[in-house]
Amino acid sequence: MSLPDPGREAEAAAAIGFDLSECAQEPIHRLGRIQSHGTLLAVEADTGTVDTAALNTGCLLGIAAEELVGGPITRVLSPEQWAEALEIGAQHEAASLLLPLAIEVAGAPRMLDVTAHRQGPLLVLECEPRAAAAPHFARFYQGVRQALTRLRSSRTAAECYQEATHEIRALTGFDRVVAYRFDGENGPGEVVAEELTAGHEPWLGLWFPASDIPPQARRLYRDNWIRAIADVDDAGVGLHPPLRADSSLPLDLSNSVLRTVSGFHLEYLRNIGVKSSMSVSVLREGELWGLIACHGYDAVTIPPELRAACEFFGVAFSLQLAVIEEREQAEALTASRERLGRITSRVTSDLEDSLLAGDDALRTLLDADGAVLCRGGRSAISGISVPPALLETLRARAAGPAPGTVWSTDRLSEEPDRPDDLAESGPAGVLMVSLSRSGDFLAWFRRARPAARQWATDPSRPVQVGPRGERLTPRGSGAVFRAVVRGRSLPWTPTDRATAQELWRTLTGLVLRHEAELAALNEQLRITNSDLDSFAHAAAHDLKEPLRGISNAATFVIEDAAAELDATTVRRMLTMRRLVGRMDELLNSLLHFARLGRGGLHRTRVPLDRVLDSALDVAGERLAEAHVRVVRNDLPEVYADEDRLYEVLVNLLVNAAKYAADQGDRTVEVRVDMLRPPSGGHPQQAVVVRDNGIGIPSDQQHEVFELFRRLHGPGERGGGTGVGLAVVKRVVERHGGELWLDSEPGRGTAFFFTLGQEGG
Question: pTM value?
Answer without folding.
Answer: 0.60
